[in-house]
Design a protein that fits this description.
Layout: H1 13-35, E1 40-52, E2 55-59, E3 62-67, H2 71-84, E4 88-94, H3 97-109, E5 116-120, E6 128-133, E7 139-143, H4 165-168, E8 177-184, E9 187-195, H5 210-228, E10 236-241, H6 249-255, E11 264-265, E12 268-269, E13 278-280, E14 285-287, E15 290-294, E16 306-308, H7 314-317, E17 323-329
Parallel strand pairs: 1-4, 9-10, 12-16
Antiparallel strand pairs: 1-17, 2-3, 4-6, 5-6, 7-8, 8-9, 10-15, 11-15, 13-14, 16-17
Helix pairs in contact: 1-2, 5-6
């Protein structure tokens, strides 16, 4: 039986440098091969960065409120992102603009230049969606308020725990939906990132939040259908943390071929052929919850499978593993760009660590 490898502690810096060099060398070889058959490559990564925000944490045995993500975890996270070498990084579970600015500046100091960013301030006040990009955006599509038709909440006793701020907005998709439009040689590509409700909940009538997660998926699917208005030529990529299994009702909302837009699940595996992207350390189980879904018009440009980062730093960075996918496009622009109508764009907030 194959033994899974997980690294809960941050290795020494020398080990990191060697692991990073090996990973970058392998990735450069893949890129060189891809360059033989396509003039333009777009690499997209999705990464739940596990509470890159102010959060209650145990520090030296003491519970500290509003404590930042430990520097050792941040360092490991940056190594994972740098090793992936993505052109567009889709982030989940990061704080507001100040945290995105901090990550972008730290990556730049270490050789990863991502001059373009977008952040969505959704109903969840702590965990946001964001993009970091090497390419400029043709449009930023911010959907902070996405209504979901949820079942009526059950009666709650006086002794029951009060719902969190995100759960109290039970008729909104907790983290909203964030999208960007990128220009490519084949025309425009719309990339969306999401973070559906986790299985943690105080709702006694919805164990593991399955109903809320399904309702959020339905709401996002309806928004995508409305935004693309039946355009079969639309090149659409949806990625992020779906918090559910590949065969779940949540995923079938997106992959059901009878509904528009029809999306296909892109296979993904690490260097050992394993497909898990999330590890629950407390209960010691592994699962796949992070995915790429793509429209038929984008499918011909995708290289399969997508890859799951498993360098030594991955276990110290987050409880999720970064997943990245490559798309190869022709050099000359195509006639039909299938652009998504631009949404109002606002600049990212400034601030963060200097």
């Amino acid at each position: 039986m194959r033994t899974r490898t997980f690294h809960p502690a941050l290795p020494d810096f020398g080990t990191f440098r060697r692991a990073l060099a090996v990973a970058l060398g392998a990735l450069l070889a893949v890129v060189s091969t891809a360059g033989e058959c396509a003039a333009e490559r777009l690499r997209v990564a999705t990464f739940n960065v596990r509470n890159y925000t102010l959060e209650r944490r145990r520090v030296a045995g003491v519970s500290e409120p509003d404590y930042p993500k430990p520097e050792a975890e941040k360092a490991a996270l940056r190594l994972v992102i740098l090793a992936a070498g993505a052109d567009l990084v889709c982030l989940q579970e990061i704080g507001g603009g100040e945290f995105v600015n901090e990550l972008r500046r730290d990556l730049a100091r270490e050789g990863g230049d991502y001059p373009h960013q977008a952040v969505l301030d959704g109903p969840d006040p702590r965990r946001r969606l964001a993009f970091l990009s090497r390419r400029p955006f043709k449009a930023v599509l911010r959907h902070a308020t996405v209504s979901a038709s949820l079942p009526a909440p059950p009666a709650v006793s006086a002794k029951a725990k009060s719902p969190s701020p995100a759960e109290s907005r039970s008729r909104e998709v907790a983290r909203g939906l964030l999208g960007v439009v990128l220009g490519t040689g084949a025309g425009d590509v719309a990339v969306y990132t999401l973070h559906l409700k986790s299985r943690l909940t105080t709702d006694q009538g919805d164990p593991q939040a399955a109903g809320q997660r399904l309702a959020e998926a339905e709401a996002v699917r309806a928004l995508l259908a409305s935004g693309h208005a039946g355009d079969a030529a639309a090149r659409v990529l949806v990625c992020g943390d779906f918090n559910d299994a590949p065969t779940s009702k949540t995923l079938r909302v997106f992959t059901d071929g009878r509904r528009f837009p029809k999306l296909r699940l892109l296979p993904a595996a690490d260097s050992r052929g394993e497909t898990w992207t999330y590890r629950n350390e407390r209960d010691d189980y592994y699962a796949r919850s992070d995915y790429f879904l793509l429209s038929p018009a984008l499918e011909p440009f995708a290289r399969t499978p997508a890859r799951i980062a498993d360098i030594a730093a991955a276990g110290a960075a987050s409880d999720h593993r970064l997943v990245f996918a490559d798309f190869n496009f022709p050099d000359a622009p195509a006639g039909n760009t299938s652009a998504v109508p631009p949404a109002p764009r606002s600049e990212p907030r400034s601030g963060g660590r200097p």
